[in-house]
Amino acid sequence: MKDDNFLRENNARHMWHPMGHQGNSDANMPAIIAKAEGVVIEDLDGHKTVDAVGGLWCVNLGYSNNVIKDAIAKQLYDLPYYSAFSGTTNPPAIEASYAVREFFEPDGMVRSFFTSGGSDSVETCLRLSRQYHRLLGEPTRTKFISLKKGYHGTHFGGASVNGNNRFRIGYEPMLPGCFHLPSPYPYRNPFNETDPAQLAQNIANAFEDEVQFQGANTIAAFIMEPIQGAGGVIVPHESFMGLMRDVCDRHGILMIADEVITGFGRTGSWSGSTHYGVKPDMMSTAKGITSGYFPVGAALFNEKVADVFENSYPAVGGIYHGYTYSAHPVGAAAVTACLAETVRLDLRANAAARGKQLFEGCQALAAKHDIIGDVRGGTGLMTGFEMVSDKTAKTPIDPATVKRIQQATYEAGAMVRMGPPNILMSPPLTISEGEVQTILDALDTGLSAA
Ligand code: PMP
């Protein structure tokens, strides 16, 4: 590897970074993470911190899982690439689809379509939901409904159903025919409703109203994250997902659960859908499927959807959609190894217990630091808090203060994620009680720097 000065000088000179301003100014200089072990990351200066972000909500099994690393290395020597496009496939891909089924069969998912990541998985679900209706003789069903504050990746379809304008402005016009309902976000919502159960009902009513307005026969699918992640860790009332499912069922609308973050144990269940006892028609997954060790995702489908594609009635049609790296053998080997480890370690209980500890710790911080307006989480290892400059008026904090807090927290020993006005956390599911305490202590120091 080149020396540290070379790396610092050349950062952003030849590479643009996702999700941020470009340029090699000091203000834009990222932490250059060079090594990791367990749940601890180390930057070029040798500064070690607990990774409260879990890479990017993805390193569920921590950084030191040699079973996954060995499987990847071995597969590189056996067969580094072969496609699964019509006419060929490869053994690891078949094994991986078998491994995935164990997690989502309880949710009714019976088929996997492999992708290169979460955005691809979302795009696959959106496109195939249109095709599903076309195959059934309802080609007018093309629209999508989603939730404000949702995050569904950055392809044009996913970005069009995203519910945060940061990801839209600069790229508009988005895909036509995408409509957004309010988020189940008690802290701020257009109904001024603070009771989560009533808010869930209000949004279900708004969904029903929107379907009546648009015409059910124009809507292909409704997509939601069981718990909204990047939008601020918004945990809905337990009735919410079921109420939305009911509206879909009444009107023949497919339900897509975007489980890119919530899949594979993060919520304390194998999926967010299992947690809420709801069976979607399609699921988008990624991240925890390889614990981030290799870029893989999977779109999953239930029997009802599989039947239409496999029997193609009354229309005839194949799936003319897929990626060069769909079912990549090295990625597939990573999936099989990662999922075997996910089952063996079964971190669901740890995710729930450590998630509760982190959530309650953040509530204690909110009692001490007035800048915290709302603490969210408590369902597995996804926690966030929203910051305000005036608690009564709920005035959102300025992004520069969030950056200062994040930086001070990093210096004090924990990497947390900024999503102004929020700080977001999703540490590896392997994290210990002591390591969660390290995050909380570092946050306490960081918040004092506001
Ligand atoms: N859906 C959700 C719910 C996500 O959280 C993300 C990524 N954070 C995506 C889709 C997009 O995944 P990727 O970045 O792997 O394309």
TrEMBL record:
The keyword Transferase applies. It is an enzyme of class 2 (transferase). Its cofactor is pyridoxal 5'-phosphate. The keyword Repeat does not apply. Keywords: Aminotransferase, Pyridoxal phosphate, Pyruvate, Transferase. GO terms for molecular function: pyridoxal phosphate binding; taurine-pyruvate aminotransferase activity. InterPro entries: Aminotrans_3, Aminotrans_3_PPA_site, PyrdxlP-dep_Trfase, PyrdxlP-dep_Trfase_major, PyrdxlP-dep_Trfase_small. Its EC number is 2.6.1.77. NCBIfam families: PRK07481.1. Belongs to the class-III pyridoxal-phosphate-dependent aminotransferase family. This is Taurine--pyruvate aminotransferase. It comes from Planktotalea frisia. The gene is tpa_2.
